[in-house]
From TrEMBL:
Its main location: membrane. This is Nucleobase:cation symporter-2 family protein. NCBIfam families: ncs2, NCS2_1, pbuX. The chain crosses the membrane at residues 12-36, 42-62, 69-88, 94-114, 121-141, 161-178, 185-207, 227-254, 275-292, 304-323, 335-357, 369-391, 398-417. Pfam families: Xan_ur_permease. PANTHER family: PURINE PERMEASE C1399.01C-RELATED, URIC ACID TRANSPORTER UACT.
Amino acid sequence: MEKLNSWKIGTLGFQHVLAMYAGAVIVPLIVGPAIGLNAQQLAYLISIDLFTCGIATLLQVIGGKHFGIKLPVILGCTFTAVGPMIAIGNMQGITAIYGAIIASGIIVMILSQFMSKIMRFFPPIVTGSVVAIIGVSLIPVAMNNAAGGQGDPSFGSLENLFLAVFTLVLIILMNRFFKGYMRAISVLLSLIIGTIVAYFMGLVSFADVFDASWFHMIQPFYFGFPTFNLSAILTMTLVAIVSMIESTGVFLALGDVCERKIDSKDIKKGLRAEGLAVVIGGIFNSFPYTSFSQNVGLVALTKVKTRNVVIAAGVILIILGLLPKVAALTTIIPMAVLGGAMIPMFGMVISSGIRMLSAVDFSKNENLLIVACSIGIGLGSAVVPAIFGSLPDSIRLLVENGIVIGSLTAILLNLVFNYKEINSSNSEQLEQLKSDHSVDVI
């Protein structure tokens, strides 16, 4: 492979940023309005998200003696946390979100020492069910945004429906007629084109962009000092464990791409760095971070395996996080355009869960029952949360969240029906994780 000069390293690093940008900013764009943040607060949330994405990536790529997988991996905020964060924020306040994130990050660092023992409780039937529940529970968010956003006077208008469908069709066409890198950034391009169309329809205002400053300094605990609630911590810990398993698959897949054998010590250091990244996210009032599998596909596509490129991407993310106008520019995307992009993005989460479940032996009625009950209870809780209205708030936070109650159901039923297999070897599960993350997942 040719030696890369600084210009090429920077350009390839920016390509990695583009590939993950839509996935990185869409989480604050969903969570912020859902927990009642105004435009200024939302712009800050996006800025700090980009900044801490960069910090988390450098921590994982550069690492140290006890931290970091030291592979060309990008870290970004996980979709898995969207539903739980919204539930915690609406029931216990925004500071409880960050208390739970910090605590879950510390727990991840501890659990990374015992990952081989933890994984046996999360075979494909559990992880597949959990990921499918996450995707299904997020679809209503996408549909509400496609209509213009709940409470918006133009909710369900023809203009909103047109923009949502237009954005969705653009993503489909780009994935049909393009390959490689263009396909990898299809969501980002569709959001940009959809916003341009909305501008000519008179639905986009640049007032917040003009008002935003060019530079600002980030500050810890911007939204207030974290509060620690047991039920919220348990919720985010479940999310973190699912992310740990997904990241293990990313590490194994990326090790294959980079022709480097990944052993248990590497995985421990990678997960330990991820836990520290989650703690940093909580301190700076951003999000829990996980390894982005879409960037594994980009490494495989470009054949550029040097860590310097991803280090450059981390630095670019930090710089973008210090520029409020960049974040403010992101907030002008109309809700309908965002909703149109969310439909395939969240749908891909469901597809990923189904793919994980493809490794399950469904000739066993017990496995059918585990999937049926976990997804059924998870979806039912998300659709009809009022069924738990008479329970105390601390318990309602767990059971009204479809992701959490569905995940707990899958874990418990797997213990009931498959307790003999739980003590068996993890080798098949590791191979399945590697294959699950060997291709790009939005």
